[in-house]
Amino acid sequence: MRLLVTGATGFIGRTIVMRALGDDRITEVVAPVRSPAKLRQQLAREGFADQPKLSIVEAEAPAWDLRNLGSFDRVVHCAGVLFSRSREEYFRVNVEGTVRLLETVGGNPRVVVLSSQAAGGPTPRGQEAKKLTDPDRPVSWYGASKLRMELAVRENPPDFPVLLLRAPMVLGPGDQATLPLFRMVRGKVWPKPGLRAKHYSWISSGDLADAIAAWFERGPQHGLHTSYVASGSVISDSDLMLTAAKISGRRGLLLPVPQIFLRPVALASKFIPAIGQKVPSLTPDRAREIWPDRWVVDASDFREATGWSCRDTLEESLARTLVWFRREGLV
Q1: What's the confidence (pLDDT) of residue 270?
Q2: Do 138 and 144 meet the contact criterion of CB atoms below 8 Å apart?
Q3: Is the pLDDT of residue 86 over 90?
Q4: CA distance 170 to 106
Q5: Of 285, 295, 80, 327, whose CA–CA distance to 169 is shortest?
Q6: 17-49 pLDDT, tens per residue?
């Protein structure tokens, strides 16, 4: 069985590659990346140096042409732009790159395209969870690009089965987005955006890899599908901070900060490089995702279709993430 994984230098794609390398059913893993040297170095640090069934190919979205790579049985498309100060870059890579992949990939594979909860937008006011039947209302360029990606696939669906998988916040080893969280709890005061509690769906990188595998094994055999996927638990912003502090062995003061005071910081990140470099996710665009109080999704359809269920707790996921950061000398 041949597997194609894009975005393998990102922590989600890398998790899927490492899982696949340990799966005897998969005979070859092909990873098109912009920097093969970077991926080799990353995998070597994870204990996966010199893997005979791994083929690393130099290619970059959206210009990649995968026709010369042969036929595939499964494809996991993780490549994309997460943080940018350019709307055009989001759409160029996230939309055009996905369309190009589906046009040029060989064979009759089962394909999972990693979309995002951001494509649907936050939970509608008065609801516990957002459903696929609710209107899509992204609040960021990133979310809008993921929604446009989905629409582009629906406008010209391929003949092979495709799942557009809307993932929420993903936590796990290698997740650079949580690095500021662990660094923050080393201090004595921990500012929390907003006076009210914010609630989120989430999933660990390991559970996400298992969910994708479950769809390959037990999901629909034909057609184009869209699903939310998430852990069975809902967490709050305070849960994130307090759990990170607990496993770090730190104590401090959790300080809710009115959001009006954080907006200028997000705006300043556009013009002051030092701020943007310190917290790359705090661009004016992605900061729009901070303001809503509820990002919770209903993933029951996916669980019913695949029989998948999550295994990891928040504490377990953050603990593994912290071990990784310490090993890399980042905290």
Answers
A1: 43
A2: yes
A3: no
A4: 29
A5: 295
A6: 999 999 999 999 999 999 999 999 999 999 999
Termini Cα distance of the chain: 39
CA-closest candidate to residue 102, choices 14, 163, 56, 143: 163
**φ/ψ of residue 35, rounded to 5:** -125, 95
Q: What pLDDT does residue 265 have? A: 52
Better-predicted residue by pLDDT, 204 or 265: 204
* 245 φψ region: left (φ > 0), alpha (ψ -120 to 50), beta (else): alpha
Each domain of the chain, given as residue ranges in start order, spans 2-175+201-233+294-312
- pLDDT at res. 325: 97
Give the separation between CA 215 and CA 224, rounded to whole angstroms.
13
**CB count in 10 Å sphere of residue 71:** 11
Q: How many CB atoms sit inside 10 A of residue 89's CB? A: 14
Q: How many CA atoms lie within 13 A of 3 on its CB side?
A: 26
Of 80-84, 200-204, 236-240, 327-331, the least confident: 80-84
| CATH of segment(s) 2-175+201-233+294-312 | 3.40.50.720
How does 111-122 read in b/e, with b if 16+ C-beta sit within 10 Å?
bbbbbbbbbbbb
pLDDT 10s digits, 155-194: 999 999 999 999 999 999 999 989 999 999 999 999 888 8
**Which tokens go with 311?**
């295994």
Beta bridge partners of residue 232, listed in sequence order: none
Percentage of the chain beyond pLDDT 90 is 81
- Give the integer Cα–Cα distance in Å for 182 and 184: 5
Q: Which of 75, 13, 14 is nearest to 41 (CA)?
A: 14
CB atoms within 10 A of CB 14: 23
